[in-house]
Amino acid sequence: MNFELTPDQVELRDAARKLATEVFRDKADRWDRNEEYPEENKKLLCELGYLGLSIDEEFGGSGRGLVDTYLVIEEIAKVDLATAIIVHEQNVSPRIIATYGPPELRQRVIPKFITGELEISIAWTEPEAGSDGAAITTTAELNGDHYIVNGQKVFTTYGDRADMHLVYARFEPSKGARGIGTILVEKDSPGLTVHKIKHKMGVRGASENELFFDNVRVPVENVVTLGSAESSKGFVKTLNVYNATRVGMGVMALGVAEGAFELAREYMTVRKQFGQRLADMQGLRWMMADMWVEIEAARGLCYQALAEVDAGRADACLSSVAKVYATEMAQRVVLNCQQMFGGYGYFGLLPLERMLRDVRMLTITGGTTQTQKNAIANHIFGR
Ligand SMILES: Cc1cc2nc3c(=O)[nH]c(=O)nc-3n(C[C@H](O)[C@H](O)[C@H](O)COP(=O)(O)OP(=O)(O)OC[C@H]3O[C@@H](n4cnc5c(N)ncnc54)[C@H](O)[C@@H]3O)c2cc1C
Fold first, then answer.
1. DSSP letter for each residue of 352-367
2. Residue 200 CA, closest ligand 1 atom number
3. Where residue 375 falls among pLDDT bands split at 50, 70, 90?
4. DSSP state at residue 229
5. Domain 246-381 maps to which CATH number in 1.20.58.100, 3.40.190.10, 1.20.140.10, 1.10.620.20?
6. CATH of domain 7-115
């Protein structure tokens, strides 16, 4: 397999790197400290077409593959995970709609996600259904030309600002997982209330929310995938998009690790103790070498998984492997890079403290490390 980037990919990556280092880097602390959404960054991302990188050109996107899309996201994650997540999230949900949604719905909403006129959240997790995503109890019951949605969601990223929520619900409760489908619920729908969850550890430029649905009427035209045993477009198919993109969590982790590594590398060349630079101390040099090995390994796994998706050979097990390795690796790397700064690394004056808090989320969201290992073990032993 050839991992050499094309000249076009190099140009795309370098442009994202320039934007990240010249515009996003110095503002990253602001979103964290103020728990503020990076509104001005998002505006810029829209203008540059980054929100539609992986969306087909017929909807106003760039029609690029996931390798290209995550080359951009990786560069942004090196300096600011909260901004990288905007690009990630606003590429995932529209792709679900573009892949499985009915034509009228696609045309109505996807171009607006790309321009930033509309924002979307994914409302799947419930208080009693996290890792066990098929255990959701939210229902969507047909009533004339509307569905009536009832239930509760938790941890919905951007739930307080999204114009539309991609809600996972049981359309046919008796059909088990096959009865689960997705429907777009608009933010001002009567019966929908949103509560922001407070005291978040990291990535404070994004908010998580609880959503309560009390007899919310949603037009049938807003159904993305109908949960039905007979339907070929149900729950199982939307999982394909997640299987393909959960490796995106791995790429963002890779980006944070690389950002922390570069900060440590620079510091070690100037900080002296015992009359020598940290960069000349054998114990620390080996720590850096070990981290380098892990970063290179994570990059290889992540981009191999993304290249398989782009080639139409999405490999769910490889995506899980890449996600587990890269996200766990990033925690180790950020922690060790923080160690290089001694006492200075413990304070919020340096980005390491924020990076350590930020990177923690990536082993949890998009399928926890443990559930990914279950999937890998299922692959090894058969279910
Ligand atoms: C910052 C953040 C943003 C999020 N954004 C969204 C979002 O936008 N939309 C959304 O729908 N959800 C979102 N989530 C929810 C996230 O997907 C869930 O938190 C995750 O799937 C885990 O579910 P849980 O929290 O209920 O933990 P649980 O499922 O209760 O798991 C608890 C622990 O048990 C382990 N465990 C569970 N089952 C098994 C098993 N079978 N074998 C071994 N170990 C197991 C888990 O790995 C974990 O360590 C977000 C979460 C966070 C933290």
1. HHHHHHHHGGGGTTTS
2. 1
3. very high
4. S
5. 1.20.140.10
6. 1.10.540.10
